[in-house]
Design goal:
The protein is mostly helical. It has seven helices and two strands; from the N terminus they run ααββααααα. Strands 1-2 form a two-stranded antiparallel sheet. α1 packs antiparallel against α2, α3 runs antiparallel to α4 and α3 packs parallel to α5. The two termini are 28 Å apart.
């Protein structure tokens, strides 16, 4: 199973993803001051991210997790999911470097589903980009990341 092929092989990754779909990704104000969260209090998105991306590397599990994140973002468009979208962009930057070695493991069907999930983000990215551009300097940096994600979703590498 692809979810077992993650950074640290956490057997709870499938549960984290299922819970993300039902409970949402958790607090985006991570990382808080040290000691604020322990164990089960760590946001689900952080638990998933630790398994699917590490120092520029992605894993077969990444191809299953990112479409779940896309579904979460699209399922609650009224929330500001920019932190999660920025992580998807970071993953996409890494995917460029790793896809040739992972494609045979993951398979074309999963890659096609992954790409389709990214393309569905095109429904909300223009509004998110506009919201961020009209914000602070940090918001403009986020807008740049979201523009990159939009390009990835359009198949531009």
């Amino acid at each position: 199973m692809l979810l077992s092929q993650s950074c640290y092989g956490d057997p709870l990754l499938p549960q984290y993803l299922e819970r993300t779909l039902t409970e949402g990704p958790g607090d985006y104000d991570w990382p808080p001051r040290p000691g604020t969260y322990v164990g089960e209090q760590i946001p689900l998105w952080e638990r998933v991210f630790a398994q699917i991306w590490h120092q520029g590397s992605i894993y077969p599990a990444t191809y299953v997790a990112v479409p779940v994140w896309c579904e979460v973002v699209l399922g609650a468009p009224e929330l500001n999911h920019s932190p999660l979208l920025e992580l998807i962009c970071l993953i996409e930057e890494s995917r460029e470097r790793h896809e040739s070695e992972l494609a045979p493991v993951v398979g074309q069907k999963i890659i096609t589903a992954y790409n389709a999930a990214l393309q569905r983000l095109l429904l909300i990215l223009p509004d998110r980009i506009e919201q961020q551009e009209n914000a602070t300097t940090e918001g403009r940096v986020t807008a740049q990341q979201l523009l990159r994600l939009q390009a990835f979703a359009l198949g531009k590498r």
